[in-house]
Design a protein that fits this description.
The structure holds two protein chains of two kinds. Chain A is α/β, with parallel strands linked by helices. In chain A, about 20% of the residues lie in helices and about 35% in strands. Chain A has one domain: Immunoglobulin-like. Chain A has helices at about 1-20, 25-30, and strands at about 35-40, 45, 50-55, 55-60, 70, 90-95, 95-105, 110-115. Chain B has one domain: Purple Acid Phosphatase, chain A, domain 2 (4-Layer Sandwich), CATH 3.60.21. The longest helix of chain B is centred in the first third of the chain and has 13 residues, at about 70-85. In chain B, helix 4 (about 70-85) runs parallel beside helix 5. Chain B is an alpha/beta fold. The chains are: A alpha/beta, B alpha/beta.
Chain lengths: ~120, ~300
């Protein structure tokens, strides 16, 4: 599971990199947003609040010695499997909006991702 | 420890002192309707508890292998060996959850194999670590027979009414442990018509009382459950989850949390997070353990003995 998630994350990174040689105009149209990482450390999401462009792949990475699990507060995305130490979970947010999430093992852990529509308007929904 | 446990109205300071001894298991004695923790298992045994005794084991986290204890299965085995060495065999065991670390079949298998060596009936309630398999079915298949909902139930033994509750399911963002209205309705119904003189023992994974909400150590709707228990003269609430001994007495209700057999966690607010606490190798076993509880009909409370694996 871990390997699969990593390959997905790598694919997303490669996708973004591949877009670069095509020129700034393509990027401005929002072809591929830069992936973002949220680290889990000491029962805290870091950063706790994050603002990204539509289409950004978010990767949560667990650095604690205890498993955590990511769940959307209003079921806006499928919850992750339990993430053991150094496991990660990636999800691409394709619609603008505010996404609140928490750890389903330790619900006192919460975070928010704001997804903004692309300025170019090409990739937003 | 027993001296500590047998006193009412503990100051917060004494409770905090007590916490630092947290470790292995709690032996419970039901005396005159109120359970007493007898303190360390060895001391409990020395008291030759009269009456009926049961044992609490908690947070075995089989599968945990991080620096705080690379061999959680080994320390569980040590705890069971200590149980087997008790001169008076407890009537049964309760396990207050987090049997496994990641809800893997092999973890449950290993836990069952070791715990089974105590040759005691075990009454389980789940911890949040026991519901992590994708289909969330392994716990129910193994331990859920005859239970309601996510695994709650009650039974009677030696005149004491035991209630196993589940407060680790459907946790809400920003919240604490959660019983939910279905379970609370069942509880109200389960208690209806019972004589107020019936000693009650409630056990669940996350503390039913608010220990430290900043770390999620409490149960959102625990107060509702306690409301239903108000009329009873002797109520003992046994929990795990926080991997250390804490006790509080409030009116007729004694709250007690047991040590883990796997790894210690810090006292509330003394570390950046409640994660596994790494201590020196020669200190670990003083912080792990079980508890033994004895019920003596002539006394007013159950006697609880918390026993570390060592010390």
């Amino acid at each position: 599971m871990r390997r699969t998630i990593r390959s997905l994350a790598i694919a997303a990174v490669l996708g973004a990199a591949a877009a670069v040689p095509l020129g700034a105009a393509v990027l401005a149209a929002g072809e591929a947003a830069t992936p973002a990482t949220i680290t889990i450390d000491n029962f805290t999401f870091n950063p706790k609040g994050l603002t990204v462009k539509t289409g950004t792949t978010i990767t949560w990475s667990n650095k604690d010695d205890i498993p955590h699990g990511i769940a959307s507060t209003n079921n806006a995305f499928k919850k992750s499997k339990a993430l053991d130490t150094d496991d990660s979970f990636s999800f691409t947010l394709t619609a603008p909006g505010t996404y609140q999430y928490f750890c389903y093992l330790h619900p006192q852990m919460t975070g928010t991702i704001v997804v903004e529509a692309d300025a170019g308007g090409g990739a937003g929904h | 420890m027993s001296e500590f446990d047998q006193r009412d109205g503990l100051s917060r300071r004494r409770v905090l002192e007590c916490m630092t001894w947290a470790g292995t298991g709690v032996l419970w004695t039901v005396a005159g309707g109120v359970p007493h923790s007898l303190g360390l298992i060895d001391r409990a045994v020395a008291q030759e508890a009269r009456g009926f005794t049961f044992l609490q084991i908690s947070d075995s986290h089989v599968g945990f292998d991080k620096p705080a204890n690379p061999n959680a299965l080994g320390t569980l085995e040590e705890a069971v060996a200590r149980i087997n060495a008790m001169p008076t065999k407890p009537s049964f065991m309760i396990h207050t959850g987090d049997i496994s670390h990641l809800s893997k079949a092999a973890e449950f298998d290993n836990a069952d194999r070791i715990i089974g060596q105590a040759r005691l009936d075990v009454h389980y309630v789940p911890g949040e670590h026991d519901f992590l398999d994708e289909e969330r079915k392994l716990y129910g298949e193994r331990y859920g027979r005859g239970t309601k909902g996510a695994g709650w139930y009650s039974f009677d033994a030696n005149g004491v009414h035991f209630i196993g509750l589940v407060n680790v399911v459907d946790l809400k963002a920003g919240g604490l442990g959660n019983l939910g209205s279905d379970q609370l309705e069942w509880l109200e119904d389960d208690l209806k018509g019972r004589s107020a003189s019936t000693p009650i023992v409630v056990f669940a994974h996350i503390p039913l009382w608010t220990v430290y909400p900043e770390w999620g150590w409490g149960t959102e709707d625990g107060a509702r459950a306690l409301e239903y228990l108000k009329k009873f003269g002797s109520v003992t609430v046994l929990n795990g989850h926080i991997h250390q001994v804490m006790q509080k007495v409030e009116g007729n209700v004694t709250f007690h949390t047991a040590r883990s057999t796997a790894f210690p966690q810090p006292a509330p607010g003394t570390a950046p997070s409640p994660g596994p606490m790494k201590v020196a190798d020669d200190e670990l076993r003083a912080l792990l353990g079980t508890a033994s509880i004895t019920f003596q009909p002539s006394k007013e409370r159950l006697a609880i003995i918390d026993s570390p694996l060592q010390g």
